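Hi everyone,

Forwarding the result from last night's run.
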Amino acid sequence: MTSHMTHDALRRAFEEELLAIAPDASLDGVAEDADLRDALDLDSMDIMNLVIALHDRLGVDIPDKDAAQLVTIKGALDYLKGKS
């Protein structure tokens, strides 16, 4: 499903799913290469919930071993784009 999504559409989907999991989080000022676990105080369960939400929304299979690639905005967008 990501094959026809633009970078901006992927970013919007990622941010919306992230904020659904961490509604009090703000991505303002968070660098694209910042570890979201530290920047937004996320734990491993939050990251797994994000992986599940992205899978459900985008139809992308994300093996557990790849979850670590989704802990930065840049890493997540690169990973998702690469799955197209």
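Helices lie at 7-21, 36-39, 44-58, 73-82.

Cheers,
N.
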